[in-house]
Amino acid sequence: MTFSWPKNFYSDGIHGQLRRNPTKPDLGWLVSTKPARVAGVFTRNTFPAAPVQIDQQVLRSNQPVHAIFVNSANANAFTGATGLANAYETQKLVANKLHTTPAEVLVVSTGIIGEQLPMEKIRRGIERLQASAPLNLAKAMLTTDTTTKTAQVTQADYQISGVAKGSGMIHPNMGTMLGFIATDVTIKQGLLQQLLRELVDVTFNQITIDGDTSTNDTVLVLANGDDWQAEIKAGTAKYEAFKADLHQVLKTLAIAIASDGEGATRLIDVHIMGARHSASAQRVAKSIVGSNLVKTAVFGADPNWGRIIDAIGNVGEVFEADQLSIAINQVPIIVAGNAVANEGAATQAMQQDTIVITVDLGLGTEQGQAWGSDLTYEYVHINAAYHT
């Protein structure tokens, strides 16, 4: 399926000379031609970047918006009063271009921390933004990513489309992780915000690459439908269907980020079953996928199940050893607390591009899932050479 935006949305991505490579876009926008309700979830880092601070102000106003502007190559983070002023100016420049007000524009940045935005390049670039192929925006967001990340669900009466970026500094607690989702449904802003928070907890917040939460993590959803006779309301079948579709878009983008971890060669997909509580299942899943010992074992194709046991034990909850079962790509490793002599089969299973670790805690009926990537020599090389 060719990626596209829902009705009354368009986007662009251009090379604004923030990057040295002239073939890589570094400025972009997503524009709604109609007023759009907005929901957002942001980093919990103690030092949120200037654009994060502005976007949080926009959301607190509970007013519709018309655009998201993004630049890569510069995070505009830890840049003080000058950085905040530059973000406000960017917001105003985009508003002037679109003949709207600054309060209807969201601004997002990603890249180097601690450097001021090159405002002359930003000004010239905004003047050039128009409408172009949807993937140009997805390209303009990238930093160390190796590929664009998109997701889309199309139904008879609505569409949900999203783009994301993220490869390193990823340990969202909604790092540099960005996600922009657009839909043409009609839904009230408060309900959209509630839904986004709920779904982010089981998608973006369940991925980890390196344990670092960025200063700029941002996920935004715009909904510009205006048919209030067809409004999506909580507790209805239509709400449940839309929730499932939005979940699918967010999950697809989250897995794409996990798959594209810096230097990654394998995706790690952890499934937890038999937990007492869903929150417990989520914590166990993320502990496993976030363990550097598990990550390096996956890189080395080593079915060292002791590292998985260690990660489960580090959650700090009470588990029963004789109830625990573990499998790697459907090859049993531990069954009811006892090791199974499957080392050859497990080693073979570890050769695959996706490593699915299934854990049954044997304590209840709740489930959880998390995603990450292996930890490789290339990860160290990328981050040793990446100027911050």
- In the predicted model, the low-confidence regions spanning at least 5 consecutive residues are 169-175
Q: What's the tally of helices?
A: 11
Intertermini distance: 38 Å
Level-1 CATH class name of the largest domain? Alpha Beta
Silhouette: globular
Strand segment tally: 15
Briefly note the structural class of the backbone. alpha+beta
Roughly how much helix do the residues carry, as a percent range? 25-40%
Radius of gyration: 22 Å
CATH architecture of the largest domain: 4-Layer Sandwich
Overall pLDDT confidence: 91
* CATH superfamily annotation of the largest domain: L-amino peptidase D-ALA esterase/amidase
Return the string of H and E elements: EEHEHEHHEEEHEEHEHHHEEEHEEH
Catalytic activity: N(2)-acetyl-L-ornithine + L-glutamate = N-acetyl-L-glutamate + L-ornithine; L-glutamate + acetyl-CoA = N-acetyl-L-glutamate + CoA + H(+)
Subunit structure: Heterotetramer of two alpha and two beta chains.
Organism: Weissella cibaria
GO molecular function: ATP binding; L-glutamate N-acetyltransferase activity; L-glutamate N-acetyltransferase activity, acting on acetyl-L-ornithine as donor
